[in-house]
Amino acid sequence: MKTRISSQSATPELRQWIVEQARAGHAPEAVLRSMTDAGWQEDVAIATLEETLKTHLAEQALQDALPAPSPVPEPRLEQAPSAVMALDREVQVLMNLRDPRVVVFGGFLSHDECDALVALAQPRLARSETVDNDTGGSEVNEARTSQGMFFMRGEGELISRIEARIAALLDWPLENGEGVQVLHYRPGAEYKPHYDYFDPAQPGTPTILKRGGQRVGTLVMYLNTPERGGGTTFPDVNLEVAPIKGNAVFFSYERAHPSTRSLHGGAPVLAGEKWVATKWLRQARFD
Ligand SMILES: O=C(O)CCC(=O)C(=O)O
Ligand SMILES: [Fe+2]
């Protein structure tokens, strides 16, 4: 007599075998016969077949709906170094998270470089605008209560040096970077959680993508240390990166999709002020 085997006992190997049989074009009756020959009770085998194929089809549909993955910037950390040489400067590796891809660097900028960036940016600040997804233009946005400005890429010796350092650290062409943006947050100001990639569903996105393709990585550099608050949060994994002067947080997103868990924001500044410089990295040359 055959013993009753519950569908719970379908191992990952069996499930994979079932999917392979279906892929190879074997009729369900033949697969079922193989299972009953191997000792499966018929009704249990049918339930297992149905459940396995249904799950497989659902997973496949999810996969197919995802935008294609892209190569992303990536620091060279295979040997788990405590510090890496970024062109002209040794930078500490403070935290290294795989999924979402987040790396925190210590001492990416010197304090003098931070102060110089703030001094250059300050006279050029205006209320931060975000990209208008409908038109591809810019707009003032309530989710972003900071002030900001953009440097041109290669604008001056300091910007050029920092851009070359970023390209070396993240192993990504300098030409694929947008101009450095500087943001200033006063007490109470924040940047609500958002994705940095352009939403493929928005009508303005194709226009934006003509210049350099998608954003695939971000480096946020802290130009001062706020007294309280102002961390960079990653709500999907309950991570908050402390905003420490000279440090930087890097994150990448291989597809324009929430599955990257790259949702992030600038937490409200509770006391003091916050200055950051952001570098967004595109898939291709950004001219
Ligand atoms: O201010 C922060 O910590 C985050 C900034 C940010 O998300 C951005 O500039 O895209
Ligand atoms: Fe962002």
Written overview of the protein:
The protein is α+β, with helices and mostly antiparallel strands and 287 residues long. It has 6 helices and 17 strands. Strand 1 (83-86) and strand 2 (89-97) form a beta hairpin. The longest helix has 24 residues, at 42-65. The protein folds into 2 domains: 12-64; 83-282, Jelly Rolls. Helices cover 27% and strands 26% of the residues. It has a 9-stranded antiparallel sheet with strand order 1-2-3-14-10-17-8-7-4. It has a 4-stranded antiparallel sheet with strand order 9-15-12-13, with no helix packed on it. Strands 5-6 form a two-stranded antiparallel sheet. 31% of the residues are buried. The protein has helices spanning 12-23, 28-37, 42-65, 111-121, 156-170, 205-209, and strands at 83-86, 89-97, 101-106, 126-127, 129-131, 138-140, 147-150, 181-185, 191-194, 215-222, 228-229, 232-234, 239-241, 248-252, 264-266, 269-271, 274-282. Bound molecules: 2-oxoglutaric acid (AKG) and fe (ii) ion (FE2). Fe (ii) ion (FE2) binds at residues 194, 196, 218, 264.
